[in-house]
Write a structure and sequence with these properties.
By secondary structure, the chain is α/β, with parallel strands linked by helices. It is built from 14 helices and 13 strands.
């Protein structure tokens, strides 16, 4: 049972085998040097202390080797992306051949829709949760327009019921019953950025495939947070960024999953570039395009090594911690945060994120009745880094790699004091 006390929080931290990982990250401080309570890993993960060394190694190779760094040095650049594959595959539950780190999330989403959104005159609609991240909606609307369809008719929104905040699976089933013959693609955010709701990916995949639809997931708020088990779950593709829970730095590269049933299909339509070409003949510039097997075959250009070095630093940290261990801590840590918020007993606040740990990751979305941004501003002034999402939600996400139980206890105390003022 949880207890609402600093002593209990400190006891949990003393018993936490993952506690030492907190010291492997740079924790933001205020102008007086006090450590801030950072609960914003769902927006930008903190920097591992080893990141600068990993990047510096590549800068040194560039300085001393020049172009020879592609084949020389401790980590030659030509196959550098391969250093990330196994760790990333474990985190998303995929086979290594199904995963590649490349481009950015929305770029990868467009590339995947080139291959997996193949509309016909009668089967062309795309299903998305109604409050999907805007970039996803923009990408899907533009794909519909590109293929000559009206986005207002072609984009089908899976909405919460009136007076509710969360999407119900049975409502998605009803959408498919009514329009399944017209739907070509289900493109769902695995974990909703606003509510923190994690959707039943395996059930959604089975439902989509039952109606002969392609299924894709945006794991921007899922990768490094929940375990999507992509290979077993069976979607056709998935995309994600790496700068939130994966701590790779602002604007860093994204990731891409293509299920093995598609990954070796060279006849599948795609937009191509030379880095997706056969490695054996890539530098013989006269060959026709010969797609690499697996997700690597969707690569376009040679990757930015400095960004990949930052990703490697974070993935090496994940590897040492073990994702199953992190997920176990996340369930307990988020559960403690939920308990403490409930203990405040203020009718103005309401957690809209699902109560079931299997239906959420680290993030809790706190809805504030009749709120404006002032409450969030007061939290910031009190030394809490969280984020505000219009119209009335404060998102807090205790990331298990660097947040601890004392963090969430101190946050709850600050929130309580501000509400009582």
């Amino acid at each position: 049972m949880f207890q609402n006390s600093l002593e209990f929080a400190k006891q949990c931290d003393s018993e936490d085998n993952l506690a030492p990982f907190r010291n492997q990250f740079h924790l933001p401080k205020d102008t007086s040097g006090n450590t801030l309570i950072y609960l914003c890993g769902n927006s930008l993960g903190l920097q591992p202390k080893i990141t600068s060394a990993y990047i510096k190694e590549e800068l040194n190779d560039w300085a001393t080797l020049g172009v020879e760094g592609h084949t020389e040095g401790n980590h030659p650049w030509l196959p550098y992306h391969e250093l990330l594959t196994e760790s990333m595959a474990k985190i998303v539950g995929a086979k290594p051949g199904e995963v590649v780190m490349m481009n950015t999330l929305t770029t990868n989403l467009h590339l995947m829709m080139v291959s997996f959104y193949r509309p016909t005159k009668t089967k062309y609609k795309i299903v998305v949760e109604s409050d999907a991240f805007p970039s996803d909606k923009y990408a899907m609307e533009s794909q519909l327009q590109f293929h000559g369809f009206n986005p207002k008719e072609g984009l089908v929104l899976w909405k919460p019921r009136k007076g509710e905040e969360l999407c119900r699976f049975e409502d998605l089933e009803n959408i498919m019953k009514a329009q399944g013959d017209e739907i070509a693609l289900l493109m769902i955010g695995s974990t909703n950025y606003y509510t923190g709701q994690s959707f039943p990916l395996k059930k959604i995949t089975a439902l989509g495939h039952r109606y002969n639809c392609m299924v894709g997931f945006d794991l921007a708020h899922g990768a490094g947070n929940i375990q999507p088990n992509l290979h077993e779950t069976g979607p056709d593709f998935a995309v994600w960024c790496s700068y939130k829970y994966l701590n790779s730095g602002p604007g860093s590269l994204g990731g891409c999953f293509v299920h093995e049933r598609h990954a070796n299909n060279k006849q599948l339509k795609r937009f191509t570039g030379w880095w997706g070409h056969n490695k054996q003949t890539r530098f013989n510039m006269r060959h026709e395009f010969d797609a690499l097997p697996g997700a690597e075959g969707w690569q376009l250009s040679n990757p930015p090594i400095l960004s990949m070095a930052a990703i490697r630093a974070s993935l090496d940290t994940f590897e040492k911690a073990g994702f199953e261990n992190l997920r176990k801590k996340a369930v307990k840590l988020t559960g403690y945060l939920e308990f403490l918020i409930d203990e405040i007993k203020d009718s103005r606040i309401n957690i809209i994120t699902p109560r079931n740990p299997e239906e959420r990751g680290c993030q809790l979305s706190i809805q504030v009745k009749n709120a404006n941004k002032e409450l969030h501003a007061q939290l910031t002034k009190a030394g809490v880094i969280s984020d505000w999402r219009e119209p009335d939600v404060i998102r807090v996400a205790p990331a298990p790699l660097y947040n601890n139980f004392e963090d969430v206890y101190q946050f709850s105390q600050k929130l309580k004091r501000i509400l009582q003022q």
